[in-house]
Amino acid sequence: MESPEVLAWRDGHIEALDQSVLPHEVRTLRITTVAELIEAITRLAIRGAPVLGAAGALGVALAVRQGQRESWDDERLTAEIAKLAAARPTAVNLAREVNIVAKLRNAGLDAVEAAACAALATADTVSRQLSARGAAHLRATCGDRPLRVHTHCNTGSLACLGWGTALGVIRALHEDGALAHVIVDETRPLLQGARLTCWELGQLGIEHRLACDGAAPFLISQGLADAVVVGADRIAANGDVANKIGTYSLALAAHRAGIPFVVAAPESTIDDATASGAAIPIEQRPDTEITTPAAPPGTKALNYAFDITPADLVTAVITENRIMHNGITASPLHA
């Protein structure tokens, strides 16, 4: 793809592609403080579970640098790192990578920066391995023919670095000549599918069609997709999946239609400490994201950012290392 780097560490600060203004404007943010990073994360300028993990890791390095510059004591540094870890509660990658890198802060700035940059560097390799494994699985499951794939939200380079997760699987199918076209849900509340996924697919030369979220289950019922492939923000120990709101309805429709519902996500998205989806915190975002501009002033909203898909509706979870069926803990592993 011909686009600026999604996320980078430059001379002690973070540079990030502002995903809130794509595709109509390409803008790179220069982030020098923890507060600026948290603001970018909460308004979805920086988004996507794997990218959030890498941004969190870099954010710890940013916090240590800012703390040295502004003479923070250890209590202040701890508090700022905690704020960063909690900026978006549903995606486990953010808090996990923050906590991993934060453990090194007593080893000095160089050690923190090295660990943060390593977290960023591994994302590309992970996504390529995951993409190839997922494409091979779908070809084996659906038949070695051009497939029609339905996807949701944005799970490509913008969200995951490298090739992406679900969109990486789609890209690998395209590279293999095994993709017919992609149906892309618009994805509320900020139209990540319409704005970001369609932009990425267009740059890759992949044929696609955009669909309203509410139309997606009906399209599946009409036999317009051979498989549904989505990403995840957190996968509980029992295989329940938290993903962008609208995913659950796709899983129900795929189950009824008898087509695979596949979740593509890195191992870092699996949260063994969370027993089931019932324990995953679901972020609720501001009313105005969905009430503006159409609803009357003062209208209240239920703006859930994510939903939970039960493990029994998930045909397979595919990571860079394995394929899992019927949940996580009790499922057989396949190379």
Write a brief structural summary.
The chain is α/β, with parallel strands linked by helices and 335 residues long.
Question: How would you describe the overall organization of this protein?
Answer:
By secondary structure, the chain is α/β, with parallel strands linked by helices. It is built from 11 helices and 15 strands. The strands form 3 sheets. An 8-stranded mixed sheet has the order 6-5-4-7-10-13-14-15. Helix 1 (34-42) runs parallel beside helix 3 (74-85), helix 2 (49-70) packs antiparallel against helix 3 (74-85) and helix 3 packs antiparallel against helix 4 (92-102).
Main sheet attributes: strand count, strand direction, barrel closure: 8 strands, mixed
Structural class by sheet pairing and helices: alpha/beta
Instruction: Report how far the terminal alpha carbons are from each other.
Output: 29 Å
Mean pLDDT comes to 94
Contiguous runs where pLDDT drops below 50 for at least 5 residues: 329-335
Q: How many DSSP helices?
A: 11
The proportion of residues in beta strands is: 15-25%
What's the arrangement of strands in the largest beta sheet?
Answer: 6-5-4-7-10-13-14-15
The coarse silhouette is globular
Series of secondary-structure elements, N-terminal to C-terminal: EEEHHHHHEHHEHEHEEEHEEHEEEE
Number of strands: 15
Helix percentage? 40-55%
Calculate Rg over CA atoms: 19 Å
Please specify the SSE layout and strand pairing.
Blueprint: E1 7-10, E2 13-17, E3 28-31, H1 34-42, H2 49-70, H3 74-85, H4 92-102, H5 109-142, E4 147-151, H6 157-160, H7 166-175, E5 179-185, H8 192-204, E6 208-211, H9 216-221, E7 227-230, E8 234-236, E9 241-244, H10 247-257, E10 261-264, E11 270-271, H11 288-291, E12 306-309, E13 316-318, E14 323-324, E15 333-334
